[in-house]
Amino acid sequence: MVASVVTRFAPSPTGYLHIGGARTALFNWLYARHTGGRMLLRIEDTDRERSTDAAVNAIIDGLAWLGLEADEPPISQFERAARHREVAAELLKAGKAYLCFATPEELAEMRERAIAEKRPPRYDGRWRDRDPSEAPVGVKPVIRLRSPTEGETLVRDLVQGDVRFPNKDLDDFVLLRSDGTPTYMHAVVVDDHDMGVTHIIRGDDHLTNAGRQTLIYDAMGWDVPIMAHIPLIHGADGAKLSKRHGALGIEAYRALGYLPVALRNYLVRLGWSHGDDEIMTTDQMVSWFEASDINKGAARLDFAKLDAINGHWIRASSDEELVERVMLDRDVLPNGSILGVADDATTRRLLLAAMPGLKERAKTLVELVDGAAFLFAQRPLELDDKASAILSSDARALLADLLPRLDANTAFTAAELQVVVTTFAEEKGIKLGKVAQPLRAALTGRSTSPGVFDVLAVLGRGESLARLRDQSR
């Protein structure tokens, strides 16, 4: 019987969940869903000085917002230190690891000599075959793996292909430090084995670790998980991704007004493809995703493409979904205060009524909320520069002439109001835009908005007429 697929996402809680980590989580989540398996979450918090509870919460919250929750509660690597020591002791007892009493001064000397001789700095194996009885007084030992010195270690990678590491280059690396704490290299292997991880999908910056970790699996007689090392994300200029390119935390993307469904759609295309498909539902991603289809080349972050995909998903979302999302994220969005303090029926009713017009113009929730500002503006409206220019004395006089006709319309629907304004423009012998532009400026305080007849209908008869009277005097 073939074992069920188990993937894992294993971030270090030393900062936010960045965009590269989010893509790694997505690939693990998709592969687990595609195969009917599970994705687990391990918090690699052994660096106690840099790991924080706030970062752990940010990672978990970021995954939840993205819709990528793990299938079991998160596991703390730090809390498993006793198990890591136990495995190191097993290796020591079996002769597959040994105690090393090299002093910090000796290790520094080794490093300096290697650099002077233009060799990669490596431990020289001086305690590999010595008896611990020869240990200098007062030196606490580390435990090192007794690595093979000949041949090579093969890593079969779903993305990179077969990668071969000469064993002479892997050296006898440390498993357990002198204070009894495990190294990252050792802890990861023990945790992945104990968690039943069958597939390791992670960034290709870990590829060099794969050779050393394979040695630990072999020494313990454990099956090596299938590995897939995915290329890193670069900036649009091809350089390694940095903050100037948009290497932000997921919470920043949320504040920029991106939808989780859009971010998932965009991230999956960073290094993986399904033909020429750009827009994909999450169900389609799950159905199509194969780790072996991940590209070898680095992907490039492109905000213009992200905006386009986000705009698509805003338009594809129902009005009700968007109202819910806006109200959920309003405290995160920089202009969320436009919506007022209360999450009440009136706010939601206005947003829902205006949403058809709002979502056609917006690429992000920030733009959508900005477009909704007219709904909640207090009279008399503050006019932006363009609106002020549009509302000349002639334009205000035109609005004054139009007001009685609008006042007489009791239904106040967009369709009927369009007839009223169009007829008025024809009688005046002017183009519709000459009336619509000052109407929009007076109703919203801006030169752009959803359709002006929709604006009239959404604001309602009383508010619309009051705003027009303010600007037609």
UniProtKB/TrEMBL annotation:
Alphabetically ordered keywords of this record: Aminoacyl-tRNA synthetase, ATP-binding, Cytoplasm, Ligase, Nucleotide-binding, Protein biosynthesis
Motif extent ('HIGH' region): 11-21
Chief place of localization: cytoplasm
Subcellular location as annotated: Cytoplasm
One Gene Ontology CC term in the entry: cytosol
CDD domains referenced in this protein's UniProt entry, alphabetically: GluRS_core (cd00808)
A Pfam family the protein falls into: tRNA-synt_1c
Aminoacyl-tRNA synthetase class I anticodon-binding domain: residues covered: 346-470
Catalytic activity from the UniProt record: tRNA(Glu) + L-glutamate + ATP = L-glutamyl-tRNA(Glu) + AMP + diphosphate
Superkingdom of origin: Bacteria
Domain Glutamyl/glutaminyl-tRNA synthetase class Ib catalytic as annotated: residue spans: 5-307
InterPro entries per the UniProt record, alphabetical: aa-tRNA-synth_I_cd-bd, aa-tRNA-synth_I_codon-bd_sub2, aa-tRNA-synth_I_CS, aa_tRNA-synth_I_cd-bd_sf, Glu-tRNA-ligase_bac/mito, Glu/Gln-tRNA-synth, Glu/Gln-tRNA-synth_Ib_cat-dom, GluQ/Sye
PROSITE patterns: AA_TRNA_LIGASE_I (PS00178)
Family from the record: Belongs to the class-I aminoacyl-tRNA synthetase family. Glutamate--tRNA ligase type 1 subfamily.
Subunit architecture: Monomer.
Name of the protein this chain belongs to: Glutamate--tRNA ligase
